[in-house]
Amino acid sequence: MTSSSVKSSSVNSPAVTTHLTVSCIGGGHLGTTLCRLLLEQQSDIRISIGQLLNNSFESSLKAVEFIGDGSAVKDRERLKPADLWLITTPDNAIQEVCEALSESGVLAPGNIVLHCSGSLSSKIIRLPDQQCYRASVHPIHSFADPLISLSTFAGSSCAVEGDDQATGLLNQLFSSIGGNCFPIQSAQKALYHAATVMACNNLVALLAMSKQMLAEADIDQGQQDQILNPLIRQTVDNYLNNTDPAAILTGPISRGDHNTVEAHLDALSSLSQWRNAYAALGEVAVGLAEQQGYASDDQLEKISDLLARATDY
Ligand SMILES: NC(=O)c1ccc[n+]([C@@H]2O[C@H](COP(=O)([O-])OP(=O)(O)OC[C@H]3O[C@@H](n4cnc5c(N)ncnc54)[C@H](OP(=O)(O)O)[C@@H]3O)[C@@H](O)[C@H]2O)c1
Question: pTM here?
């Protein structure tokens, strides 16, 4: 069954929809995993995979083999009708792919066009001539190895936004594969995504910086790991046991030790990238220390002044 099964009334009322055809443009790490999970889910909605279109036909064939359903297609002109269009190309191709899809004439009223970018909202999907619904669902999961993701996806949070007529059904579908769906405002997607980058990618960068600073202090690599690993583990455990950051902050800023902070900034005086990072994060720590109330206002003001004077920007 194809688009005839998803009239706008059935999209509004997911329980009415029993069979959806999902076609995927950009079947890479995430796209193939989602297609296979959707295919194998056991909810009231039965899924068939329609077509897979990648940059190269070989890549589309590989995606079909992994998913176990659907057919590989060589170009956009050969696309056939589907109910749900999963656009899972890299972010910078989404808009162009959606425009081409819109111009292809294959879309039908009531179709859902969905992308999975973390930072972009559904508003980048422009479908001027169709009565289709637009949405984005960002699964907070690393799809580095699709085979592993098949068994680890359940429990991942999924940020959902877009047209109301689509989000109800998508909440149902992503919940059926184990996603913890939550709504996100379209205008807040970039900020939301930046927050997840801070907790994941930038945390890695921060740990890399910490190691580089130890190396600069002439501490060899084996010793660096012995110093940092227990500290990192303990800090992350403390955070996971009590997710109020003000409850777990320790160290010189928490204690109001402005002389220590001054010594750190002096040691970093010729290393501006590290000093700027230290000062920016230190300002956040001052805010937490104010909530804790261990250090006096006077001590925290001195620290804040030192940090402000230390930055290059
Ligand atoms: N990977 C993750 O962990 C993750 C997590 C959350 C969200 N996301 C989001 O998921 C989306 C896909 O990411 P990914 O990591 O799965 O990407 P990916 O593994 O690089 O796969 C992208 C796929 O898109 C195809 N493609 C590229 N440009 C295309 C075009 N113009 N037309 C048709 N197909 C095209 C590629 O085809 P070829 O193979 O032929 O080059 C490839 O199969 C992105 O929006 C990303 O932000 C990813």
Answer: 0.89
